[in-house]
Amino acid sequence: MSDRPPCLCCGLRKIKKSELDNIKSNLQLLFENTIDFRLISNTVICDHCVNIVKTFKNIKEKLSHAILKSENVNNEPTTNDQLIKTPTAKNSKKRLASTPASELRFRLTPKREPVISSLVRSFEKLNTHTSLNVKERSGVSRRRIDFDNGHDHDHSYTKGSPSYDIRQISDQDSNQIEALLCQNLDSEYDSICKEISKQLSELGNTKSLLLKNDIGRLQNSDMFSACILEMNTHCPALLQVLVHSLGKHESIEKRVATIATIYGMILHSRNVRASCIQKIFSALLIGCHADNKPIVHHDSPEPSLEIFLPNEAEILVYKNSLKILLGRILVEYMPGFQWMKKVLPDHIDHPHKEEMKRKSVVHMLPLSLNNECSYDGCVRIMDGYIEMINRWYRKAGRAAELDTLQIPVGGDQLTRVRFQGAKTLRAGAHTKQERFDQLYPMVIELFHTLQDFLEKLTKRFLKLGNSRDQGTLANLKILIQRSNVNGKVKSRFKAHEDFVLTVGHSYFLDYVMKKFDMKDLDDTPTHKLLPENIKQLHAPSKQKIFDAIMEEVIAEIYIPYETQAPKKVDLKLLIAYQAYQCSASLDNNTAVVPLSINGRQTIIQVPVPRLQEGCIINVNGITIFIQEVKKGHDDLFNYVHNFLQWYFIILQMEDAIHEGDMVRTNVIIKTMIPFFFSHSVLSKYFTECIDFNLKTEFTLPPHVAAEVRAASFVNVHGGIGKNKAADMHKENDVKLVKDLIKGLGANKTEKSIIAMSKAAPVINDVTTNFDKMLKLNDFKTKHKKRSSEEDIRTLVKKLKDLDLWNFHENRTLTLFTGIGQSPFNFNTDVFLRNMKSTIFRLQRDLPCESDDDNNHDDDDEESDMED
In what ranges is there compositional bias, type Polar residues (predicted)? Predict the structure, then answer.
């Protein structure tokens, strides 16, 4: 054994040897020359080395073939057989195939891939990519971090940025750069460069602090300052170069960080283990949520206050619908206006009337024995919602929709605030179900908004303590004997709503009688715009007359809210012993008075304090005495005008709900905002109206906002004008469940109550169908609504004697002394400031402030609502 010569390649003496004759052909192919084997006759090669020689031969053959193929690809155009898909600038959606079809077998086999196959496949990928234009590449490696600035991405949410003209690097420039980096050191900088290189080389033999990158050092040590000290010790020349290169314009901290970063990059290029600085910046990028996606700049403008108040177009929508509603009242109670019936539509047109007339399918949820006044109960209620939603969708085979599903949740003010707060408590949960992401958004409902608005109206205008003030709600209540109107709107909503509408109709009809010179409701109206043959005119002519008359009526009794309304003051002028009266606008506590003297237009400015006492001004040689006219106060006149503005809101809201008009509903909610603020600065529904408009017109996408607004209505029976508020229908369902629970008697347990609430819809359908089969009528034990025609005639007769629409100076009301004609007698700056702070708070889900009247929605109070 020991006499065997060692292997020619590895030099080891192994048991199994291959004689030289067995590898002659392989060696000749390897060296591509004829070998004289007589010179190496006493030589052997082991089997292991023979296999290595064969493998190297195969590598050489395949690499040669790949190189030839590469030259062919670069010289010839790319065909469809060579590429799976050629990406273009517009069509670059598919990624280029990373593996040729000929090599897919290596991906399917579980064995280890041979090295030669990997090399050949890499050459094929290189050939494919080099044949494409660089601009047409469809994608980049998923592992490459791209710090693109986003300028090349055409997104609507990307800010426009100036484009920079970057000159392309030519081959000549590349060669020049390569020559600069590879050339020998110039004699001018030879000494300093050699010194820096020598110091860095010696530093590589020492233990640099950048090699010690343990977590404790990164957390507690000042690595930047330590790098400066190390450079001063081991490579001061480099430190001096960097210090002088940076200059002294930046602060010391910034220069220290910059020099330490450059130092870390230099050492890392010489030794990859010197990565302390790199780890610091990696942690910084991770902490700042850096990603390998392009950086885009999103526009996030703050909502303007203008979207929360009606603009000119929305005020026009409000006025046009108010004309129709008031015209219907004239047609109903005054025979002299029957000609309007031909021009008044049965239903006010709106964009979604076809969708809103469809029959709604409403399902009643089982009762949840939890109290929404506490966050614990709200979380349990919302957990129940999530459980039911996920169970239903899975059973229906629609589980894939759960990832993007969002269902709006509506309710009163307490429900909206409590549910929003409970959802915030789960904001840090791990899954969508635990975070309640499927319950979004949470908004106020229309019936509760109208109910609270009616309650604010009642508190302002109905003072039951004194009913002696003629023409007020308390006085008229006694006149028509409305004993069920007691100021508790939540327990007697229908009674208070009907009473307010009855009084509002009466006020308006009394105004029409005064304007059209009518003695009673049955008298014939007279007006300069009304021809005697009005009934014989065609519909277009009637429409023009109707528009002109109602435009005049609206201009006299409707008071819109204007944030920039010019303030005016009435003045009395005495010129050459002749008295005149005029109005002047106010600007910074100064009255601006336009005058026309001898055909010349003159404008004079007088401070308001001087006008109160009266002052003398000389204008072009003419002496003028100016004094402010202190107009008297008519409380009843102002009371009626103020009340009508609230009455118009209720009239509009009821009709918009019946029609399912989503556009007009938002306009009315915007109009309500200053009314709620006039009642209280801390009004709860002032906040809720802003929240509803913020979500439906700013925060939510348009299609989601439309779904939320449409979900505020239900149409149980189907048809035009038969919608009602969704929360009103829910209140009726609650009454049904309460009646069934009462029938349990002494068997009221939690289990039986929940079971009864689940069976309530079926029981109601069975009993309703039974009544239909037997043709039984629905008998009611009490009046829900009394006839209003007789009451209106009684009220109009009373109001005509009071002469409401002529100003009577110093006519006072005991409980309404100093009441304003407009409901907007508040500081506009304070109003806008409160709106802005409320919007800011709602955008960040901060808790709301409590209302000053401690008005809570109590579910224990029985309501008298009906379908």
Answer: 78-90
867 compared with 319, residue with greater pLDDT: 319
Closest C-alpha among 14, 801, 67 to residue 476: 801
The three-state secondary structure class of 314 is: helix
CA distance 739 to 743: 7
Angle at 279 between CA 277 and CA 283, to 5 degrees: 120
Residue 392, class by beta-carbon neighbours within 10 Å (0-12 exposed, 13-18 middle, 19+ buried)? Answer: exposed
How many angstroms separate the CA atoms of 858 and 451, rounded?
A: 13
- 724-725/713-714 β-pairing: antiparallel
197-211 mean pLDDT: 75
Query: How do residues 651-677 score in pLDDT, each as one tens digit?
Result: 999 999 999 999 999 999 999 999 999
CA–CA distance, 487 with 499 (Å, rounded to integer):
11
What are 221-227's contacts with CB under 8 Å, separation 24+? 223/260, 223/276, 223/277, 223/280, 224/256, 224/257, 224/260, 225/256, 225/260, 227/259, 227/260, 227/263, 227/264, 227/277
Using CA atoms, how far apart are residues 610 and 398, in angstroms rounded to an integer? 77
Q: Chain-wide mean pLDDT for the chain?
A: 80
| Residues 677, 831 contacting (CB under 8 angstroms) | yes
One-letter amino acid for residue 771 of the chain: D
β-pair partners for 574: 579, 625
CB 685 within 8 A of CB 452: yes
Q: Residue 158 pLDDT > 60, yes or no?
A: no
Q: Classify 518 as helix, strand or coil.
A: coil
Phi, psi of 216 (to 5 degrees): -60, -40
pLDDT beyond 70 at 136: no
Of 694, 599, 25, 820, nearest in space to 305 by CA: 694
Side-chain-facing half-sphere of 303: CA atoms under 13 Å: 24
So where are the chain's domains?
A: 20-136, 189-287, 310-358+447-527+636-734+781-830, 366-444, 568-632
Nearest one of 209, 179, 328, 333 to 279, comparing CA atoms: 209
Query: Which residue in 732, 688, 693, 689 sits closest to 413, CA to CA?
Result: 688
pLDDT attached to residue 584: 79
Contact 620, 602 (CB under 8 A): yes
Closest Cα to residue 660, out of 327, 454, 351?
Answer: 351
How far is C-alpha 92 from the geometric centre of its chain's CA atoms?
Answer: 32
| Residue 310 clears pLDDT 90, i.e. is over it | yes
Residues 400, 397: Cα–Cα separation, whole Å: 8
C-alpha count within 13 angstroms, C-beta hemisphere, residue 685:
30
Whether residue 413 contacts residue 848, with contact meaning beta carbons closer than 8 Å, is answered with no
Q: Are strands 568-575 and 578-586 parallel, antiparallel or unpaired?
A: antiparallel
Please say if the pLDDT value at position 589 is more than 90.
Answer: no
In the prediction, which pLDDT does 784 show? 53
798 phi and psi angles, rounded to 5 deg: -70, -45
Long-range contacts of 840-846 (CB under 8 A, 24+ apart): 842/687, 842/690, 842/691, 842/694, 843/303, 843/694, 843/699, 845/420, 845/424
- Residues 20 and 49: beta-carbon distance below 8 Å: no
**CB within 8 Å of 196: residues ≥ 6 apart:** 235, 237, 238, 241
User: Residue 505: its pLDDT value, please?
Assistant: 97
Which residue carries 């603020």 as its tokens? 677
Reported as a pLDDT band with limits 50, 70 and 90, residue 710 is very high
pLDDT number for residue 34: 64
